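Repro:
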Amino acid sequence: MQASQFISDSPDADATGSNVQQHLRSGLQLFGDGKANEAVAAFQRGLAEVERAGTESAETMSDLYARLGNMAASCGDFQTASINYQAALKIAPHLTNCWCDFGDLHLRLGQHQRSIELYLQALKLNPRHWAARFNMVQALMAAKQYLIAKAVLVELKTERPHDARIRNLLGKTLFELNEVEPAITSFLEAVALNPQDAESINWTGALKQSLGDQAGARAAYAQSARIQPLIRRPAAKQPAEFLVLALYAPFGGNTPTEYLFQDAFFDTNTLALFAARDYDTDEFGRNVQLVINLVSDADQTEALLPLAADLVDRFGLPTVNHPRKVQQTTRDAVAALLQGIPGCRIPQALRLKAGAECSEAALKAILPSWSTVLARPVGTHGGDDFEKIKDVTALSAFLSQRVDHEHYLIEYIDYMSADRHFRKYRFIFIDHEILPYHLCIGRDWKLHHINTDMAHQRWMQQEEATFLNNPAAVFGPAQMQALEAIRERIGLDYFGIDCGLDESGNVVVFEVNASMLVHARNEGFLYKDPAVRRIKLAYDAMLRRHAKPR
């Protein structure tokens, strides 16, 4: 028996019954009017009187409990919702929908494994229950059980070939499984079914960009922005603590957020910035309590950062990493900005424009008396086309093959340790905290974790673990003072540094910017997990401090 039937089927009720009807009818009316909190209170009063009377069937009672659970969940009263779902299932464990609703509640609370267990209870009763399977996929993805999620989605895709949402989720799952081409296909199928699916179009752009298809990516990003300028992502756990507006550059370097925004306690509106567009701050800033500028590569986004800075100024809201400060983090600007810090060696850096004269004579005229030069294309961060060159003849030959690119010419400072290994340290700066992230050890001056032998050298892993757990054992008071000075001069709320130590113990700066990757994929290096979690906790705490109170 439904609650509405319970109300209407008692025309001759006594005073108590009439009072019950009044409360339940009032609750339903308030709920229909969108007054969820008042509806829950009225429904609770009616249900309490039903319980006291003790005259209703188990079917009616379980239905009322389930309804109250749904009402409470809809207005964010998760404790009341949980209590009533449990009460309903205790009386009537055959209620498939109630098991599913209880799973939905735990999914909203971020309790993904528990929600999966509850969805499975629903599926024991009805293996074809659509909502339980569809919502369980989202829980499986949140729990990183991507292979199982893929299997369920393939089954759902067969059953509902015209549901674009399934293609969208399958695309995301395939991406996580590193099946990029099939992921693009799935997103394109979603768009074919729903041409207004801006999120799938945006995903297509991102994946095409990762494969080097710049023209396809640019078209997809533009199409997505026309349909839906804001990409909305709810908090992992509801209710959200606040609303963030994240600014990013579709074709520039951005702060990687896969880990930093993981299990977010805030709702996120992401706004793609295009230089030729104007942005309505009233529209995009509505209800926003914190702006996070993700545009982080001052070289790649040189033309876009002034627009971002103007937009942030017009918002007038608390902002993490103001674009105007990011503009000061090109390699040559950082080299100038950090000069004169005691105990810190900052390599000089020159920026050579594309098409500039690169003959030996021209280079001798502009280069200081460096014995060795590092040459790399402007806007790059990896090891490709990044070379150490020891004489002007070789440098001229290197640049002559790449005249259509801008290059940085950077002074090389030797940082080899006494044991003839090179060591590159990464710290992450978050407000006033300086946290270690990793240490690379190798025989070559050009160090990246992936091209070292650290996976097979126990002593290297132990040294990295020691550094992560106690950085002061490596960076003493003088070195930490140098890092503090760097933090003060850079002035960003969040950024990273790659650095080494020379034979005298000076900090040798390699790179300083907000584009550095922090991730939790530490297979084979599980000792890194606590340090990575400390960074995430510090980042979360920073956002809470900066967010404008409601």
